[in-house]
Design brief:
Elements (H helix, E strand, L loop, with lengths): L7 H53 L7 E7 L4 E6 L4 E7 L4 E4 L2 E4 L5 E2 L3 E4 L5 E5 L1 E2 L9 E5 L3
Antiparallel strand pairs: 1-2, 2-3, 3-4, 4-5, 6-9, 7-8, 8-10
């Protein structure tokens, strides 16, 4: 009499081997998804950082506005108001609840899940101005904040 089919042990072994392969494939898919998400977040944060920095730098270096003559901090709105020599004032604000950086009438929405901190603007001497807007993302251990140094000679 010929036995056709598989024994119970063969079925259990093949099922276990299949589950191991499926487990490794799921782990690979999850890892690739995390890498894709992190790359997406990093590229968007760097893009926002570049756009905000460019706008602020253009104004700081604009000959039409003149040098920065003064700056004040508005505690209610969490804004720094920067007064230029021409009498024009620009404001830099952070909205820590909605994760936005606001420069005058432009609002920059940051990547979902990122955190923006409070702005710091300071003068090291009579002509040098330093602006720092901290931006971070919890899963990444890098600072994607905006750091601008205006050094006048």
């Amino acid at each position: 009499m010929k036995n056709k089919g598989f024994t119970l042990v063969e079925i259990i072994v093949s099922f276990a081997l299949t589950m191991i392969v499926v487990l490794f494939l799921f782990q690979l898919v999850i890892t690739l998804k995390n890498v894709y998400t992190n790359n997406f977040v990093v590229s968007n944060l760097i893009l926002k950082q570049a756009n905000i920095s460019k706008m602020i730098n253009n104004d700081l270096l604009s000959p039409n506005l003149g040098n920065v003559s003064d700056f004040t901090y508005d505690q209610v709105n969490k804004c720094y108001n920067i007064l230029f020599g021409s009498g024009i004032m620009h404001s830099i604000c952070t909205d820590t609840i909605n994760n936005k950086v606001i420069y005058d009438n432009y609002e920059f929405d940051l990547v979902k899940g990122s955190k923006v901190g409070n702005i710091s603007v300071e003068r090291k001497n009579t002509s040098d101005l330093y602006i720092h807007i901290p931006i971070s993302y919890p899963d990444l251990d890098k600072d994607y904040g905006i750091k601008i140094a205006l050094v006048n000679n």
